[in-house]
Amino acid sequence: MTVRTVLQSADITRALTRISHEILESNRGGSDLVLLGIPTRGVILAQRLGRILESIDPAVGESLASVGSLDVTMYRDDLGAQPTRAPSPTQLPASGIDGKTVVLVDDVLYSGRTIRAALDALGDHGRPRAVRLAVLVDRGHRELPIRADFVGKNLPTSAEERINVRLREIDGIEEVSIES
Amino acid sequence: MRHLLSTKGIDRATAVGILDVAEDMADVATREVKKLPTLRGKTVINLFFEDSTRTRTSFELAAKRLSADLVTFSAKGSSVSKGESLKDTAQTLAAMGADAVVIRHSASGAAHVLAQSGWIDAAILNAGDGTHEHPTQALLDAYTMRKRLHGVASRGRDLDGLRVTIVGDILHSRVARSNVWLLEALGASVTLVAPATLLPSDLSTWPVTYGYSFDAALDQSPDVVMMLRIQAERMSAAFFPNAREYAREWGLDDERLDRLRADTMVMHPGPMNRGLEISARAADSPRSTVLEQVANGVSIRMAVLYLLLSGEREADQ
């Protein structure tokens, strides 16, 4: 087994900063934006993106509706094939998501099934004006017609390899590595 | 978890885990679409050999909120009233492809029999068996206590140090039994209060203290007072002289209500006999959690159905 570090702390910060600028560019500012992280690490990334967006443009801080989390456990299509998963809390902004631009945030985009579940979950909470997807790593191997709007790093992998995203808040260290 | 038959043997981490899942289930009731697709294609059968309103309705709502298909059998109006045995009923349900059977039965141990007989391969949920156990009631009681204590910060918490007094017909109460084991697992301490005729003859193996005087128990200023229903249908002998004497000695009347702290919870599993074990003012007071218990029951049953029916099926031990 070999482990190769592909993104270090500074790379992750740079990628998130670039994604923040891209979000503001595509949304033409920070109005009616909602960032929803998918547990567990997507929530951390969404919080960081929220802070970077505020630091880029303090005015965004006020109009940036909220940073929350969206649990997709109950919407997964593989519940019967895996040990029972404990759900995580879903936290949406008090003003709801109707008419907002929701940016889903996750650490790794792989088969696309998690995002499919997230889109279904979102539909049960309201009707956003648009839904975008931001991921730190896109490793390919999609099984559904889903793509990310904002990508930190494209990492071509083989299906046998594992991508480990470690973030300071949860893991104590900060890196993205490939295990093969 | 393969079945939910009893709260005895559930450890603290598992119990807190179930209550935490119920927190997430409770959030569903506040959403625009009050339904999850999680148990699509699963069949849940409610098998009720005894009368019930809130438990049956609660399980029905829980199964429907999780998108399971649900059928309710009650003894009246089914083949059971023609003399069909539990075995034949179980095998019939198995042949129909039930994934879970929620059973309420007047015989203690009926749910265990169903789970261990091999007649049916479904997950079995005990919704009350005779005078033995009623695990989902204890779980919703614990959830209600935790919610009153910690509010939105309930996730991950146990009930360490909480003092709970359970009053009434302990002898016939499956609610009391399930609560005793679960509260012990969660770290609460339990005091049982009842006339001597309505206490089990040997309490030495129960993790509780007990007494015969309600007033003496109230002097200890408990955090929770749980009143039990006087179950006329299980009273085969004269356990107390008459209802008025019971109400005077062991009922939560207005005078006793006024002795409670403002934050003491008054709980009752329902249905209530107003004026007998609980006065109308006590039942309707802000201390009363009766309606919260009913609302929380749906979340708890959703959590249990989810935990039993999702994931790979564990093999029988």
UniProtKB/TrEMBL annotation, chain A:
GO terms for biological process: regulation of DNA-templated transcription. SUPFAM superfamilies: PRTase-like (SSF53271). InterPro entries: PRTase-like, PRTase_dom, PyrR, PyrR_bifunctional. CDD domains: PRTases_typeI. It catalyses: UMP + diphosphate = 5-phospho-alpha-D-ribose 1-diphosphate + uracil. GO terms for molecular function: uracil phosphoribosyltransferase activity. Gene3D superfamilies: 3.40.50.2020. Regulates the transcription of the pyrimidine nucleotide (pyr) operon in response to exogenous pyrimidines. Belongs to the purine/pyrimidine phosphoribosyltransferase family. PyrR subfamily. This is Bifunctional protein PyrR. It comes from Galbitalea soli. The gene is pyrR.
Automatic annotation (TrEMBL), chain B:
L-aspartate binds at residues 82, 174, 229. Residues 160-308 form the Aspartate/ornithine carbamoyltransferase Asp/Orn-binding domain. InterPro entries: Asp/Orn_carbamoyltranf_P-bd, Asp/Orn_carbamoylTrfase, Asp/Orn_carbamoylTrfase_sf, Asp_carbamoyltransf, Asp_carbamoyltransf_Asp/Orn-bd. It catalyses: carbamoyl phosphate + L-aspartate = N-carbamoyl-L-aspartate + phosphate + H(+). GO terms for cellular component: cytosol. Pfam families: OTCace, OTCace_N. Heterododecamer (2C3:3R2) of six catalytic PyrB chains organized as two trimers (C3), and six regulatory PyrI chains organized as three dimers (R2). Pathway: Pyrimidine metabolism; UMP biosynthesis via de novo pathway; (S)-dihydroorotate from bicarbonate: step 2/3. Keywords: Pyrimidine biosynthesis, Transferase. It comes from Galbitalea soli. The keyword 4Fe-4S does not apply. The keyword Transferase applies. Catalyzes the condensation of carbamoyl phosphate and aspartate to form carbamoyl aspartate and inorganic phosphate, the committed step in the de novo pyrimidine nucleotide biosynthesis pathway. It is an enzyme of class 2 (transferase). This is Aspartate carbamoyltransferase. Belongs to the aspartate/ornithine carbamoyltransferase superfamily. ATCase family. GO terms for molecular function: amino acid binding; aspartate carbamoyltransferase activity. PROSITE patterns: CARBAMOYLTRANSFERASE. One of its GO terms (biological process) is 'de novo' pyrimidine nucleobase biosynthetic process. Residues 2-146 form the Aspartate/ornithine carbamoyltransferase carbamoyl-P binding domain. Carbamoyl phosphate binds at residues 54-55, 104, 134, 137, 270-271. Its EC number is 2.1.3.2.
